[in-house]
């Protein structure tokens, strides 16, 4: 696999697949620019070499055509600031404006193409669409690890039209850090799995049972485990058809000598809102009409102790509904513990994208852990042992 460092972009027009699928508020202000900042080293290497960069990305989930709210033009002020130069914009990704602007692009210049997903052919992995995109440049750089698990036109299919296929810095760092967790983990190795559903995490949990010493389970999925063990969960989140699977996972962990840590108390609410009435109850004793929305103080102490005694930490998924400030305590406490283990105890910590990355960044801890992944789904699939189309296309 060619890497950015091993390639000279002088005189080249690099088509760079980036992941600018960033959250925007109603005024189109970016609320988390992590993914944009992550691409700066790759783009600057290209232009500093004397090449030009043509940036391709998707944004949101447009339904079968252009939608104003998903236009990448909203990112231009942030990109101009990030790259320290004007970023040109083509109001299409394969039309005449894209062709003309790409053709006239000078060394050191940057062009952003309009949202790739305004064409349904992008997600379908359409070869003809990929070929049209490919004609805009003469080297393909894939720096979008967050979409590497999708066999889309720009993330995988267009690789066949280039002799020079280059892995960007983000892609390389993601693969290197995932490899460090999977193959070079120092012990004790603790995985923290949160989030809403067991069904989203079955494969990664099963894979991790062969690798970790400790598995911490938090978030909405814990209530399915609790219910399966005969506990009362009120109106908490439940995957009723996954209860047998939950018990099976606990049994497998025991057989493999992995210590499982689950909440011993929960912060509950009588409504799904930040302003709901709250009470702390023991796990398995949630009254009817109440739902668990965060881990409780005893659980925070228990989980913190495990994290602080770990040398390798993988965290994917929040401990509760961290979007509500009154139910973000558990997630923030785990973030603090991971930071402390990293900074004071020399642990290696990888935050696995998605909501856990947002939580860590919102709490201001993003630069105080070892690595924050930009790709939730892609990282999980890579760790599950699946071949990622966007990575395979770089070979």
Q: What does it look like?
A:
By secondary structure, the protein is of the alpha/beta class. It has two domains: 13-172, 3-Layer(aba) Sandwich (Rossmann fold); 185-383, Rossmann fold (3-Layer(aba) Sandwich), CATH 3.40.50.1260. The protein is built from 14 helices and 18 strands. It has helices spanning 34-48, 76-83, 96-104, 120-124, 127-134, 169-183, 202-208, 222-228, 243-255, 297-308, 329-345, 354-362, 376-383, 389-392, and strands spanning 2-3, 13-17, 52-56, 87-90, 110-113, 139-142, 165-167, 189-193, 214-217, 232-233, 259-261, 265-269, 278-282, 285-286, 291-295, 312-316, 348-351, 371-372. Strands 1-7-6-2-3-5-4 form a seven-stranded parallel sheet, sandwiched between helices. It has a six-stranded parallel sheet with strand order 11-9-8-16-17-18, with helices on both faces. The longest helix is centred in the last third of the chain and has 17 residues, at 329-345. The model has no long low-confidence stretch (mean pLDDT 95).
In terms of topology, how is this protein built?
Blueprint: E1 2-3, E2 13-17, H1 34-48, E3 52-56, H2 76-83, E4 87-90, H3 96-104, E5 110-113, H4 120-124, H5 127-134, E6 139-142, E7 165-167, H6 169-183, E8 189-193, H7 202-208, E9 214-217, H8 222-228, E10 232-233, H9 243-255, E11 259-261, E12 265-269, E13 278-282, E14 285-286, E15 291-295, H10 297-308, E16 312-316, H11 329-345, E17 348-351, H12 354-362, E18 371-372, H13 376-383, H14 389-392
Parallel strand pairs: 1-7, 2-3, 2-6, 3-5, 4-5, 6-7, 8-9, 8-16, 9-11, 10-14, 16-17, 17-18
Antiparallel strand pairs: 12-13, 12-15
